[in-house]
Design brief:
By secondary structure, the chain is α+β, with helices and mostly antiparallel strands. Helix content is 45%, strand content 13%. Strands 2-1-4-5-3 form a five-stranded antiparallel β-sheet, with helices on both faces. Helix 1 (9-18) crosses helix 4 and helix 5 runs antiparallel to helix 7 (158-171). The longest helix has 18 residues, at 44-61. The chain is globular, with a radius of gyration of 20 Å. The model has no long low-confidence stretch (mean pLDDT 92).
């Protein structure tokens, strides 16, 4: 497995609405999709046969409701286009509160359950766009309101929304910043979730690598 991406239906809804030359990958909508890329170094025919057998078992057991296998490079590109244009579709839709979090792979479903419930309780009508790299437990978890006027008021409550998401992440022993780093936006937020010892260690590493403080001054430490 070289890629294992998780996409919510909301992701596809936005992509299909805002990105040209995109098409629903399956006959009927599903709450969740997995985009999986595999390569075993063998022949395409042998690999396709193995995939068909695995997917057949998943369908028979109820683990999956439908599936499709790209039969050409063009079809594979079309499927990846759905994943790769989620951020652009969100941008065209409007502002959102973005999160780049990670939790243990085994805790992804629990994170989605807890965070979704807490957010919908605190912010009725919130729209959750969740997608990411399930293989390493990294999720992009973005929030917005469908109505632009409502969304402006929601964006103003970013601190409260962030706290809900990050508290769930911390409870599941994850990280509030995965592949994109802390930057400036989470510089103060990280102090809520790291101990004094951990912050001191971060300072020590920074000082060892950058004793004169000339590398990215003021961004994190």
């Amino acid at each position: 497995i070289s890629a294992f991406e998780l996409l919510s239906r909301m992701c596809l809804t936005l992509v299909l609405q805002h990105i040209s030359d995109t098409h629903d990958p399956l006959a009927a909508p599903s709450p969740w999709y997995a985009l999986i890329e595999v390569n075993d170094g063998g022949t395409d025919a042998a690999l396709c046969s193995e995939l068909e057998a695995v997917l057949s078992q998943a369908l028979e057991s109820g683990l999956a409701s439908d599936a499709t296998i790209a039969q050409s490079g063009a079809q594979a590109t079309a499927l990846w286009r759905l994943r790769e244009h989620i951020s652009e579709a969100q941008k065209r839709e409007g502002l959102s509160i973005k999160h780049d979090i990670s939790v243990p792979v085994s805790a992804i479903a629990e994170f989605l359950k807890r965070a979704d419930q807490a957010l919908t309780h605190a912010f009725p009508g919130v729209r959750i766009v969740a997608f990411g790299h399930v293989g390493d437990g990294n999720l992009h978890y973005n929030l917005a309101k469908p109505n632009h006027a409502d969304n402006a008021a929601f964006i103003a409550q970013s601190t409260a929304a962030n706290r809900i998401v990050h508290d769930v992440v911390d409870a599941l022993e994850g990280s509030i910043s995965a592949e994109h780093g802390l930057g400036q936006l989470k510089r103060e937020e990280i102090l809520l979730y790291k101990s004094g010892v951990e912050i001191a260690l971060m300072h020590a590493v920074k000082t060892a690598l950058d004793p004169q403080g000339i590398m990215n001054p003021g961004k994190v430490i």
